[in-house]
Design a protein that fits this description.
single chain; five-stranded parallel beta sheet; about 35% helix; binds N-carbamoyl-L-aspartate
Length: about 325
């Protein structure tokens, strides 16, 4: 069997073709249905081993990859890094290489440093799935965002999508832009100057500081978390003193949605800073907010990723 994907690693959406993205989303759609049935488990990848290596904290993404692997019959190891030999001075790379020597099939890696997953992928026997590296990329989040949008809009073609918030530190924004551009999206990146980054103008999107302008006629709005735990331009960033003004200018509310399309949907990768990125009323309003649907289809997307990366490789 030949693979639907040209690479045996998934590092970013930038490297996926439109056909590869469609193949992943179509396969994921089948898994959405499987995940709704009472027997969610198949033996498709039984005998294969997935290793979750999260050098940075995670709730959704790690649980989602864990469930995805188990639902395909894989063995899953969640390495407790805080109890590992990292505490004795072993490097992050040596940690990966030692587990790779145990003939595992796929690593799911989250790391604080841009480029870590790519660097590892050049030196391992196992496939690498990037579960977020620094501010660089988060391909499975972009894929699950795309599936959520496609399920609501019927197609991904030529949509108007606004990405709003702390885009400077956002790997989710970058991976979403690479993906959506392949489908002809009109993308607006909305942020105050201190959260904007020069990267975006170079990506062929409209950058804008005025939220009401950026949201006009939007089909989908992706709100992004203020990521206080990450440095901004190499420095810690004091958001506390900007918080109230930020919420007034960039907090999403029902009122602000009026300039968007009537059937606009609101996404957020989570975790949500309640009361910062958007009002609680909007976060919990299932007419617009698809945040929990994103989490739900995320498992199916990760099943599709394991399936397309691994099932065509020698048994
Ligand atoms: C995102 C991440 O870690 O990049 N969350 C996620 O994976 N669901 C976004 C964020 O941390 O704000």
């Amino acid at each position: 069997m030949t693979s639907a994907l040209s690479s045996r690693h998934l590092i970013d959406t930038a490297a996926l073709s439109k056909a590869e993205i469609e193949a992943l989303l179509n396969r994921a759609e089948a898994y959405v249905q499987q995940n709704l049935s009472s027997n969610k488990k198949s033996g498709l990848l039984s005998g294969r081993t997935a290793v979750n290596l999260f050098f940075e904290k995670s709730t959704r993404t790690r649980t989602s990859f864990d469930l995805a692997a188990k639902r395909l019959g894989m063995d899953v190891i969640n390495v407790p890094l805080e109890q590992s030999s990292l505490t004795k001075g072993e490097t992050d790379l040596d940690t990966v290489f030692n587990i790779d020597a145990m003939h595992v099939d796929v690593f799911v890696i989250r790391h604080i440093r841009d480029g870590f997953a790519e660097q590892v992928s050049r030196q391992t026997e196992a496939c690498i799935v990037n579960a977020g590296d620094g501010k660089h990329a988060h391909p499975t989040q972009a894929l699950l965002d795309a599936l959520t949008i496609r399920r609501h809009k019927g197609s991904l073609n030529n949509l108007t999508v606004a990405l709003c918030g702390d885009v400077s530190r956002s790997r989710v924004a970058r991976s979403n832009i690479h993906l959506l551009k392949k489908f002809g999206a009109d993308i607006r990146v909305i942020a105050p100057d201190y959260f904007m980054s020069e990267d975006y103008a170079a990506m062929g999107v409209t950058c804008c500081a005025d939220m009401d302008k950026g949201l006009r006629d939007a089909d989908a709005i992706i709100m992004l978390r203020v990521q206080n735990e990450r440095d901004l331009d190499g420095q810690p960033f004091d958001f506390i003193h900007k918080r109230d003004a930020y919420i007034a200018s960039y907090g999403l509310s029902h009122d602000r949605l009026k300039v968007a399309k009537d059937d606009v949907i609101v996404l957020h990768p989570g975790p949500v800073n309640r009361g910062v990125e958007m009002t609680d009323a909007l976060t919990d309003d299932r007419r617009y907010s698809v945040i929990r649907e994103q989490v739900g289809v995320g498992v199916a997307v990760r099943m599709a990723v394991f399936d397309l990366l691994l099932s065509s490789q020698g048994a």
